[in-house]
Amino acid sequence: MLAYYSATAHADFWTEHWGGHTVGELLTVARQSPLTALIVNALPPTGVVLEAGCGLGQYVILLRERGWRAAGVDGSLEALAACRRVAAVPLAAADLRALAIRSGALSAYVSLGVAEHDPDGPDAILAEARRVLAPGGTLVISVPYVNGLRRLGAPWLRHRARAVAAAGGAFYQYAFSRAEVFAALARHGFAPLAAHPYDPARVLRRLLPRRARASRRATAAVAPGTGAQASVGEAGDDGARRAVKRLARRALYTEPALRLLGHMLLVVARRA
User: Which of 90, 124, 205, 237 could form a disulfide with 71 if both were Cys (CB 3.0 to 4.6 A apart)?
Assistant: First the structure.
């Protein structure tokens, strides 16, 4: 596992993190994301689905819209309250290592980018996930992925983590190889069925120079309909840029590119 430390990781980190987003914004992203298809295709058609660490609850809302009996739990009261202001969905504050749910009550357990944040590792969360899932139940979990690029850069990443920790930084998260995720699942009686790296553009965005990222954000923030008319040349340039983006997206979502650059790894497993 690769450990990451951050000077900004503190007790109120997640409340501040979710405060920078809106439920509607994240729900729009979820409705269009390739990740959503991976999740819904893995879920059983019946039974109760829990999203553990649901944040602002966009996937709880989306799954209920699509017919699942979905509920969510999270440690941030502010995030749960924000979701409830938008949709009347079942939510509760909870510690994922000790859920107030009877054993074997769930048909599916979904947790996206959560288990990696426990400094003791994912075992306590996975043990509790197994307890609340019915035999044969489905686990859908994602964690940061030690992709090809991170594997090559592991010595530098470990050196940087030690430096941040020595300067007073707090533990933030782990990243896992596919083998490490499978081993953790096996320790808790889960049989992996599929593994999907995703979000390959995240690493590339971080590699962009800061000035280029700022320029892209400024361009994206320009509001349409301000009275200025695009020239024919500018319209052609926009079309060319869209075509390049489509080609780049296809290239990024090939299996070799996902193994090299995928930021996260989604694993589907079955409880024994």
Answer: 90
